Amino acid sequence: MADDVKDKVIRIIAEQAMLEPSDIEMTQSLQDIGIDSLGLVESIFAIEEEFDIQVPFNANEPEAGDFDISSVAAIVGAVEGLVAAQKS
């Protein structure tokens, strides 16, 4: 399941950045990829819809929440945690 979540999150991020999923590296930040604040919000909405989860994210204070957006790997890990919590 973890690879499935990872692949879906990377696909969503790649779509927002208008890149191929293969161009996305786990160590990159969204800023490195070229995703601005609007793209971040769109990515969050797409993640919520894809996984039927509620992401604890405040667009007015993106760094203040419990959802780590510091890198692609952090986002994938946070989504994996939310998906696992939903299933339990």
What is the secondary structure topology, with strand pairs?
Blueprint: H1 2-17, H2 30-33, H3 37-51, H4 72-87
Helix pairs in contact: 1-3, 1-4
Estimate the helix proportion, in percent: 55-70%
- Helix/strand/pairing category: mainly alpha
Number of strands: 0
Mean pLDDT: 91
Shape: globular
| Cα-based radius of gyration, to the nearest Å | 12 Å
Please, how many helices?
Answer: 4
Describe this structure in words.
The protein is mainly alpha-helical. The protein has helices at 2-17, 30-33, 37-51, 72-87. The longest helix is centred in the first third of the chain and has 16 residues, at 2-17.
Structure summarized in a few sentences:
58% of the residues lie in helices and 0% in strands. With 88 residues, the protein is mainly α. Helix 1 (2-17) packs antiparallel against helix 3 (37-51) and helix 1 crosses helix 4 (72-87).
Key descriptive features of the protein:
88 residues, 0% strand, mainly alpha, 58% helix, globular
